[in-house]
Amino acid sequence: MNHILRPLLDECVVVYLDDILIYSRDMKQHVEHLRRIFEILRRERFYVKLSKSEFALEKVHFLGHMVSAQGVHVDPKKIEAVRTWKTSENVKELQQFLGFANYYNKFVPLYAKLAAPLTNLLKKNTPYKWEPKHQEAVEQLKQALTSAPVLILPDPERDYVIEADARDQAVGAVLMQDQGNGLQPIAYLSKKLHGAELNYPIHDKEALAIIIAFKAWRCYLEGRRTTVYTDHCSLKYLKTQPNLSRRQVRWIDFLETHFHYDIVYKPGHKNKADALSRPAHLLLEEYHGVLCAEHFGSNKTLTGIAKHYYWPHLAEDVQKFVTSCDTCQRMKSSKQKKAGLLQPLPVPEQPWQVVSLDFIIGLPPTTSGHDAILVVIDKFSKIGHFIPTHTTERTEEIAQLFVRYIISQHGIPTTLISDRDPKFTSKFWKELMSLLGTKLAMSSAYHPQTDGQTERLNQIVEQLLRAACKDEISKWDLHLPVLEFAYNNATHAATGQTPFFLCYGRHPLTPQKPTASATVQPAHDFIATMHQLWDRTHRRLLDIQQEQKRQADRHRNDHTITVGDQVLLDTRNLDISHLPSKLRPRFCGPFLVEAQITPVTFRLRLPATWKIHNAFHVQLLKPYRDPNAIFFGRQPPPPPPVLVHDEPEYEVESVLAHRRRRNGTVELLNRWKGYDPSEDLPKTDMVT
Question: Would the pTM of this model clear 0.70, i.e. be above it?
Fold first, then answer.
């Protein structure tokens, strides 16, 4: 098949045995390619079975890969096969696993290093003894393969970039290209060093990594300009240094004969291939994470390591390691400023456009049966209404109070602000406000500061009640009308006017005030003055709001959380009372950020069993630093169970086996998500 389609190979056809893969840039070109191929097949008397053919596909499965315009990645079916691969019990099964994994090594940046413990088991005269390090290597390979990146297809018209690095036992490289979206990987390469290569000086090992990369990717690099990044500074002068060994001469001759290249120095911590062999995390784990270290902070951990060890950027590595420690992130309280700058609510332009309401509960029952107060406040004039009610009132009865005391006197507001009381989150309340044309604005979960003005007014009302009632505690509801009048007739610090005057345009009559005005102004002057007062009040509220924001932001930091991030959730408001308060974790998670609702409010993907609102203020969130992101191979501790009806439950990653009992029940052997395979239940303890 390769012979008869030779004229079209590398133009529009890839052939493997009797599989023919045709690639084209557009439909018109695709039809032309098909016509030419069918003519060749007809001439050579080959026949294509229609039921086994597919045409005009945007992505296709081919030889264990998924190929599309975006690039090449591992076939999802193969990923599932890797995920469920059983532990190898002998050399033959290990060879099968390594053969499968090696087929996809171009997707894995550190393949040679990850597979080293397993390949060592295949050496001659080496007894087959499965140890924890071998199981760890298998799990790391599985993780690397199941999260393998998409490799872009090389563009022969663009230049290439190689990043290469070497360590004591292995070398590695990555081939990349910028096709308009920054540098993206085309292929990864890694190789264990053998024999005399292990004795090379570090200068030659770094050069060997470059030579191996050029040999492996020669078909791409010949005829194009290639930039090579290395973390070994002296390689910049490889071609100009006066004294060369025979080996170095051969290497330079190979490069100069076939390639156009530049060698550029790039510090190791910025080099993608430099992660090939960095065992520092094992030492850091010993000095920070083991029992004797007690998860101290960066300074104490650094002091302990520096007594015995040193490597470049030691302090920086310790800082990154400690800040990304999973246990520390969950258990330690945050000492940082509150996250999220203050986001003031929009200032309304006139009275009773925006209204907030809340309940004061926990009051002693009165002789009339009242044990709560519905507090309603206008966000513009600051005028308030204190309505006695009952904690047992249904949502429909609260709606009747709202109509009787608010809508009947002030009209329908455009926006209604409240907390997430069940009465305000009910379907009836939402439907009623929707029919009235009123927008509901509710505070995020466990963040009452959203409606701080009403919370502050609640405190004022309670203070006034304590002063007014004294010995008449059972008649506190009789004092509410007088307290409401007194509050509304007092000058408000934010507006400089009384709420009553801003709402009605006049001061109320009081026993100390004359019953007649000294002068009477024309009606149009009154209206003009009223609007001027509203405008001045609006500007004053804006100025005060900006000053409040400036003062509040002095104790806050802007956040960096975006959609798609993993974050931890503060546990102070969660029901984890089964744990002692002093020992319970300070944060739980991590959880995926699904959406940004406001500049400082995010919706999280919570477990389905959590019966809480999933929108949280950024003040309750903390960015999660993946322990494995910087120090590869570092494993976080197993996740805690999820409590469902006060019973711990664990998430199942996969079902390894099952059996049916004589009584008809089915028992399962499970792999628990986030737990080591050694935690799999033995078959004698299968769960139903």
Answer: no
